[in-house]
Design goal:
The protein is mainly α. The chain contains eight helices and no strands.
Length: 123
């Protein structure tokens, strides 16, 4: 079976474009493909994804489960467990590992949750 060559027909709408116009057209099409994927990533997460993020931040695998469960219990999972740990570390001027350990031990959750309440008040 021989494939019918229809390249000339399919490229007619591109033939009159300059290199700059082709460049812009390419990136606009790429955006149409990638933007929905980025939006899904922003709006959707899961406990396993959040545990994976915490592991990549250097937090012990034994500590990831209680941190993620704490985020779920306090409605913070949508903010990102790594984000919760990071903001607590920054607020207390400690390392990310230390902040993760505090949260895994059940400490500082009120402070961590308050950091996100302050963030949303002006909106």
């Amino acid at each position: 079976m021989r494939r019918q060559d229809d390249f000339a027909e399919r490229r007619k709408h591109l033939a009159a474009m300059s290199d700059g116009e082709l460049y812009e057209y390419f990136w606009s099409l790429t955006g149409q493909v990638v933007d929905p994927l980025l939006e899904l990533g922003r709006k959707n997460t899961s406990p396993s994804i959040e545990r994976s993020v915490l592991l990549r931040m250097g937090i012990s695998s034994l500590e990831t489960k209680p941190i993620v469960e704490g985020c779920i219990d306090r409605g913070l999972l949508g903010k990102g467990a790594g984000h919760v740990v990071y903001k607590l570390a920054k607020a207390k001027s400690i390392s990310v590992k230390e902040a993760g350990s505090l949260l895994a031990e059940g400490r500082c959750w009120d402070e961590a949750a308050a950091l996100f309440r302050k963030e949303g008040e002006g909106k």
